[in-house]
Design goal:
The protein is of the alpha/beta class and 270 residues long. It folds into 2 domains: 120 residues, Rossmann fold (3-Layer(aba) Sandwich); 133 residues, Cytidine Deaminase, domain 2 (3-Layer(aba) Sandwich). Helix content is 37%, strand content 21%. The chain is built from 9 helices and 13 strands. A 6-stranded mixed β-sheet has the order 6-13-11-9-7-8. Helix 8 packs parallel to helix 9. The protein is globular, with a radius of gyration of 19 Å.
Length: 270
């Protein structure tokens, strides 16, 4: 489905993803942008960049959909994550409770897929999370930072393979490896915590691989890295980051490249 340039909404999580989307959407000619923002997640600066905004607590599904209907929104994009600890602080309304009761498994794919179904009941379509952002996905090869040697490419390829298997099992989409050994596998704690754990075990010179799930639903949970990823990796002793070409968004790319140079972290795409 082609984006409706007259009126699009974003479900805005944390980080710079929402603002990056807004900038790209404006450049593409979107005339009106509406944002559903979340308390203690979405950056307050977003309010100055959209035409209408309302703040919610995680779990207020019925209220959020009512807001979209009031704003005459028919297309929505999910941009930005919700911190894992906030998912345990859910204050679900009746509509969300009924949705959750129907789910046999509760992972990103089933949860966001169910939310998409709820949106559809009110005539709202969930667009790919990469809408207007396709140019931010890298092609295979070196992306930023120092050029790495063959041994590090081998670690990156090994980590990539393990991450693909881990994501297939719905465990996590990021792993940390060193010298052919898996140091950490991402689970519910999120990428940053997995990188800290793996980097501490590796004591420097570790490699992080971040991939999409097999059969990735591009409407949500798309792999993303940005300047904070580089800073967190460097602080943890991870100096190579391998991402999946054509499936990963590079947010804040200019700043990310500068951080790679300064902190001697290499980014490659496989």
């Amino acid at each position: 489905m082609s984006p409706d340039l007259s009126n699009i909404a974003l479900i805005a999580g944390n980080g710079i993803y929402p603002e990056t989307f807004v900038q790209a959407a404006r450049k593409a000619g979107v005339r009106r942008l509406v944002a559903a923002a979340f308390v203690n997640e979405t950056r307050p600066e977003l309010a100055d960049r959209v035409d209408a905004i309302e703040w919610f607590r995680v779990g207020q599904l019925s209220k959020m959909i009512a807001f979209f209907v009031k704003q005459e929104v028919r297309q929505v994009v999910m941009v930005g994550q919700i911190a894992p600890n906030n998912l345990f602080d859910l204050r679900p309304d009746l509509r969300l409770l009924m949705m959750l009761a129907r789910l046999k498994q509760r992972n990103a794919e089933t949860l966001f897929g169910a939310i998409s179904d709820e949106l559809a009941k009110d005539g709202i379509t969930l667009l790919p999370a990469t809408t207007f952002l396709e140019e931010l996905m890298p092609v295979p090869g070196h992306v930023a930072g120092p050029v790495i040697k063959k041994r590090r490419w081998e670690d990156a390829e090994y980590g990539f393979k393990i991450a693909k298997e881990s994501s297939r099992l719905d465990i996590g989409q990021t792993v940390v490896v060193k010298n052919g050994t898996v140091l950490a596998v991402e689970a519910f704690e999120g990428t940053n915590e997995a990188v800290k754990r793996g980097g501490a075990l590796g004591r420097g010179g570790a490699t992080m691989a971040k991939v999409s799930k097999p059969g990735q639903d591009m409407r949500f949970d798309v792999p993303v890295i940005g300047p904070d990823t580089i800073r967190n990796a460097a602080a943890a002793g991870v100096d190579v980051i391998a991402v999946e070409a054509g499936m990963t968004l590079l947010l804040g790319k200019e700043e990310m490249v500068a951080e790679c140079v300064q902190k001697k972290v290499s980014v490659i795409a496989l």
